[in-house]
Amino acid sequence: VFPQVFLVEKAGRRSLFLAGLMGMLISAVAMTVGLVLLSQFAWMSYVSMVAIFLFVIFFEVGPGPIPWFIVAELFSQGPRPAAIAVAGFCNWACNFIVGMCFQYIADLCGPYVFVIFAALLLVFFLFAYFKVPETKGKSFEEIAAVFRRKKLPAKSITELEDLRGSEA
């Protein structure tokens, strides 16, 4: 994770996150192919091993550390501790669920177990591509403005402006 600190400032959070997700997706597909063809080609064990190492590397480049940067930058000082607590809970809860269920799912799905991960990674990639803004070098106000532009109609008024208009 140490090189990630320098890499994230150069490349940007969103691009590293997307690259990590896509790399993990490709690695999951390669693991599936390696496991499916293992009985036919002995050298597929090497494909599976390389895919596992690449999966871990891509995780450490993107989805491992980047969400912590983004959560810290998406929230202002007041709600930030609560947001980080919720993010941490979700992270550890998902880790627990995967850890407890993986063996059962692997027994059920056999060599296709990583197809589930690939499908989830595709969903996460699409969500991040369309919904997660780049936060590198932006203030909280600039990031909040990006979300406001996406949600509010073209002509919007603030609550204070609305109150002033009703007094007149």
TrEMBL record:
User: What is the superkingdom listed in this entry's lineage?
Assistant: Eukaryota
Q: Quick one: a GO cellular component term?
A: brush border
Q: How does it sit in the membrane?
A: Multi-pass membrane protein
- The Major facilitator superfamily (MFS) profile domain extends over 1-136
Q: Where are the transmembrane segments?
A: 16-37, 43-61, 82-106, 112-130
Q: Name one GO biological process term.
A: dehydroascorbic acid transport
| Predominant place of localization | membrane
Entry's localization field: Membrane
| Keyword entries, A-Z | Membrane, Transmembrane, Transmembrane helix
Q: Which residues form a coiled coil?
A: none
Q: Which InterPro entries match?
A: GLUT, MFS_dom, MFS_sugar_transport-like, MFS_trans_sf, Sugar/inositol_transpt
Q: Which GO terms describe its molecular function?
A: D-glucose transmembrane transporter activity
What protein am I looking at? GTR2 protein
Report the gene name: Slc2a2
